[in-house]
């Protein structure tokens, strides 16, 4: 029970402090033109005049056109040297030097790989020429063998065989004539032997000569028969087979030569691709080494990217020597000196009023008394992701305002206040925004009557977050309460929620 009482007392104390703070703030409005004290309550006298409708937002001065220097070295690398922030540099001056020791080692290794790849490519190229030459030689030899086989077959059919046949037939004719002469001589020898003109030995010699002639004739006839029935067929088969074999050998040689050349060409292409790839890697490493030294592309003022960046934890770690940076990380900005913009975040509640091209007044704490002119250049189509992530109920849209005229003195990163001039209402009646509340579903103000302050329905127009345009219901000189009273219990009745006072943000524009 004691704990509960302590919580109740704490809550009451907080409420009392809050009410006191609000009362002091409202009391301060009595100093506004038309505000007077009536019965110890702050009032405002309705006046007529020009009412400016505007949206006031805080923002940051940025360069409209700037060169962004990024780290293009792959992976992570360390800063060895860094130009001082805020210094003026000229085109070609060294801004940042990154550690290139690992890249230098990789360069030496890659140069060796390139040399090996080049040697392999040259060897494959020369090997291709050798294989092409050998292929032509093998094919030509096989083609000659096939041609000779065909010619040998034709030569045998048209030359050798007819000649052999003629020789065999001629031999038979000669052997027949020799046999006939040997037989005639034998007959005469027998007659002469009977007449005792020759001896027995001479007769036997003639008989032996006749038998030999007979055997020679039979051998000649057998040779002719062998030539026609056996030798000719075998020779033809061998020669025809040789023609077929050489033809197939020619086809094999052509196919093998083609395959060898294709394989050698493929190997050459592979070695060429490997050589080109290794050269490309070498060139990439050389380019990476060159990118470790970042130079100014133009004259300008050095601004570290970390100085203009922030995340949900606050400002990022300042850029410094010895710090590791990642690939594509923004390092340095070189803003254009005469091209400036202000970036603000517009709340979704007033987004429908803010349009591109509206005039804007810019003020900065760094340059008090100076007002810069500009216009709304662009409004983001989607809410700021970081703001949504931090607070899902907060929807703000990044808006760029391009400044015009003399912008001397403005620097990137300066805080500023931007007043977007939406409209200028001439000869308008207006009252403070907090004077309007809702009662029984109607927008009302409390004016001084015979028995105190009574509600009066009004029709309101647009507001600038301080003053609201009164379209109907009031006249110039009326006194309205700056702080409408809370409704009593008897007044609320059954419509308690409708009659409760509302905050200025609930007032309809």
Just give the CATH class of the largest domain: Mainly Beta
CATH topology tier name of the largest domain: Elongation Factor Tu (Ef-tu), domain 3
What's the CATH H-level homologous superfamily of the largest domain? Efflux pump adaptor protein, beta barrel domain
Beta content:
25-35%
Order of the strands making up the biggest sheet: 3-15-18-17-16-19
Keywords:
Helix Hairpins, 509 residues, alpha+beta, 28% strand, Elongation Factor Tu (Ef-tu), domain 3, 25 strands, 44% helix, 3 domains, 4-stranded antiparallel beta sheet, OB fold (Dihydrolipoamide Acetyltransferase, E2P), single chain, 6-stranded antiparallel barrel
Quick rundown:
This protein is of the alpha+beta class and 509 residues long. It folds into three domains: 30-65 and 336-506, Efflux pump adaptor protein, beta barrel domain (Elongation Factor Tu (Ef-tu), domain 3), CATH 2.40.30.170; 68-99 and 292-335, RNA polymerase II/Efflux pump adaptor protein, barrel-sandwich hybrid domain (OB fold (Dihydrolipoamide Acetyltransferase, E2P)); 104-290, Helix Hairpins, CATH 1.10.287.
